[in-house]
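User: I'm new to structure prediction. If I give you an amino acid sequence, what do you actually give back? Let's try with this one:
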Amino acid sequence: MSGQERRVEQDLSPSEVWQQLYPPGTFVEPDRRDHVATYPASLPDGRQIVLPIRPLPEEDGLAVASLIVNQASFPVEDALMDAMAEIVAKAGAEIVVGVPTLGLTLANGVARRLGHSRMAALGSTRKFWYDDALSVPSSSISSRKAAKTLYLDPRLAPLLAGRRVAVVDDVVSTGSSLLAVLRLLAKLGVEPVIVCAAMLQSERWRAALEAECPGLAECVAGVFRTPLLRRTDEGLWRPVAAEAEPALAQGSAA
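Assistant: Good question. You get back a string of structure tokens that encode the predicted 3D arrangement of the chain. For your 254 residues, that looks like this:
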């Protein structure tokens, strides 16, 4: 571990994560070494950002790298949206669907970069004119015990019909929240051409998606991927290879 890597691992304060874009190669082979409290992720252009490690409350000894995009610096936010816009553009998307809550910030930026005049924002609170037929239950890894509902404003439905739709979110983790989005869009007969997230948080989402929507996992892309992490006997966090990731506990969500 270099001196720069050691400083970040030991001395970075909670308010400093997600704030800086480090030059390519600042952190070497993060998937092949143990970590103290942070995990460096690489963008497609090689620049790196530092993410805090969060132990999973219901999975003892396991943790994930965390991204809270509305707490990131504007340069980091812009870099993520630039990369996401490139991914979505290659898929030929005609309209962007933003997933609440943190996906909405990214979806707005992606749609603007693509030259779109608007986006379609899903909601997590019911407005009085909403139709319950256009709603589904949802959950996420950061709020597993809080029951949520995902809504589509009926007035947005005509924007999606017959269009090439991109779903934009901040993180795909276990797949539960993504499946909720797909179920909601399916009520309109819509299947997205691309699902784009800033971070693919481990590979545990893939099995859930393949079980319900075979083949759609190939349409999921992220700016970067982070592994599941396991606590070592020394109290450090060691990346778990994708093929060795444990199955999700019953009732886990993300």
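You can read the tokens as a compact description of the fold. Here is one thing that stands out. The CA atoms of residues 134 and 187 lie 7 Å apart.
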